[in-house]
Amino acid sequence: ATQQLKETFKDPNIVPGLCQVLGSSKSPEVLGSSQSPEVRKQIVPGLCQTLGSSQSYEFRIQILCQDFVSKTPRNSIAEVIAMVAKHDIPNNQWPQLFTFIQTYTKSQNPAEREVGMSLLNSVSSAAGEQLKPHLASLLQLLAEVIQDKENRMVPFYAIRSITELIFYIGDDEVRYIQGIVPTVLHVIKEFIPVDEGQACSLMEVFDEMLECEVSIIAPHIKTVVEFSLEVASNTELGDNVRVKAMSFIASLIKMKKKAFLKHKLVDTVLSVLFPIICDSEDLDEEEEEALGDNESERPAQYAPQVIDMMALHLPPDKLIPNVVGYYCTVDIQSMIDVDMMKMVEPHMSSEKASHRRATYICLAVVAEGCADYITNRHLQAVLHCVVTGLNDPDHTVRNAALFALGQFSEHLQPDISKFASELLPLIFNYVNKAAQEAEKNPKGLTRSYYALEMFCESLEKEILPYLPQLMEHMLRILRSAPTARPKELAISAIGATG
């Protein structure tokens, strides 16, 4: 079909005819045809080269007279207008477009105001760079219409337009929209119970502010973080909007850590993230995705990724005293600094397995970013925590402790090797047990071998004293394991010693 269209457009009479039809047709099906990439690609060159000036002018007038209020063809018409505007705006060839947008956005009719803002959003998306000379007036308009109380889609399109234009905003334009951040928050709060998908779309404005023009959001950082935590912690909301809220916090930590630290948000964020990690129906899934490269769609899986981001980008002394003090307090006060004990009551000895398990996930995800700090100050303490977890009666807690041990083995070398004589026998015993319970606890099997492989790989030549014992365990599994999976993992573990 694409090839046929290309051949058709070689006819010099096609583009003028197409523009005439699109400018005058009332059929949603006909207008919808403009969504074809090949059709759209031909319209602007056609207006510039194929059509005469009178025909081009007539098309521009006709397209603005289309039925915008009817939602079905609106997007198609807006796409066409946005493409033409991208060409016309630099040369001021279509002044009627700005008049149309101004008239509709100021209309007394709420439906017409929605039309005007929808069109401005499309033009901002397609021709943001071309709109730069008009930014001051456009931002003032957007700051005004975002206050619309009669039609919620008017502020929706206003925020989406701002999102598209932020990249082009300079110091001179910041003042026009810096004061509307509280209004943006209010609009998003109103959208969340109505349409979480649209609310997520609106929340992208904060990501753009962080990345392109942080001075807009700088005075409101703490307020936006508090809003994000409120959304993230609300278990009545859908996963996507909760994850979206946490992703802003992760982006803030990564890109503007000084602002994050300035507002002393570490404790506040950790106190919200930990219950989210605890609140999971699939307890064995989170540690598998906690350090994944892709953004998880589930809050309990994404929350550890935020803590991982904190570990990677914040000074360890601002994070570890809070993490270890908050989550890891099983009779280890003598092993760790006093400041770590400011949140005394232990989660590790909680009656709830989900709390104990979350402790090990949190310890695991800080290992990479805070490796030196942990090894120099708290290695014995965190290993004591892990040993406690390996003996937990709940298999999901044991699995999480093994995950933590695997992370420590990978990132806390060479110091952790000093504890090989204590840790390897524990891992060997757990590997044997997990092989026998592979069907009941498959995650335990993979976690135990993960910890074993990471430890063995890091030992290098220091593995030699333990090699006979390791081979004895692996050969026993190869001979007696009831299923193939333990044998596959045993072979992989043997390879890790090479």
TrEMBL record:
Coiled-coil features, chain-numbered ranges: none
Domain of life: Eukaryota
Ranges where the IPO4/5-like TPR repeats domain occurs: 72-227
SUPFAM superfamilies: ARM repeat
Subcellular location as annotated: Cytoplasm; Nucleus
A GO-annotated cellular component: cytoplasm
InterPro entries referenced in this protein's UniProt entry, alphabetically: ARM-like, ARM-type_fold, Importin_beta, TPR_IPO4/5
Entry keywords, A to Z: Cytoplasm, Nucleus, Protein transport, Repeat, Transport
Principal location class: cytoplasm
Protein name: IPO4/5-like TPR repeats domain-containing protein
Organism per entry: Pinctada imbricata (Atlantic pearl-oyster)
